Amino acid sequence: MAYWLMKTEPGSWSWDDQVAKGVEHWDGVRNYQASNNMKAMQIGDRVFFYHSVKEKKIVGIVEVCKEYYPDHTDKSGRFGMVDVKTLYPMTSPVSLEEIKAHPDLQDMALIKQSRLSVMPVSNDEWQIICEMGDTKPY
């Protein structure tokens, strides 16, 4: 199992929207590096659901339930999407500020590549953030 983080603007797609839907496609990604990260995702991989813009915090965990396939919103045919299913919220959402303050998270892509919308998360980073959010890692 691999771990990831996906960013969303809560005004466009929020944790509450995801919970209400249960399973939804993650479309609209138009960055090649983010798209390549989604291509690497496999069924069962876990994903931090991150609210960007003003909130800047990890609010929940979803699971990849359908691997990369063509994005119906991309007219060029170059980009794809994955489907994710809701697992559970973070008991205590973990803010970007908290992540930046943690000495063992300084190499995290969320800090190093702050504009990337889909990024890998190492096993150690996953464990630390779950602990910070008082949330079970599996």
UniProtKB/TrEMBL annotation:
Q: Which domain of life is it from?
A: Bacteria
- Pfam families per UniProt: EVE
CDD domains from the UniProt entry: EVE (cd21133)
Q: Any idea where the EVE domain is?
A: 2-132
Q: Which PANTHER family match?
A: OS03G0676100 PROTEIN, THYMOCYTE NUCLEAR PROTEIN 1
The protein's name in its UniProt record: Ubiquinol-cytochrome C reductase
Q: Which organism is this entry from?
A: Kiloniella litopenaei
Traced from the root, the source organism's taxonomic lineage reads: Bacteria, Pseudomonadati, Pseudomonadota, Alphaproteobacteria, Rhodospirillales
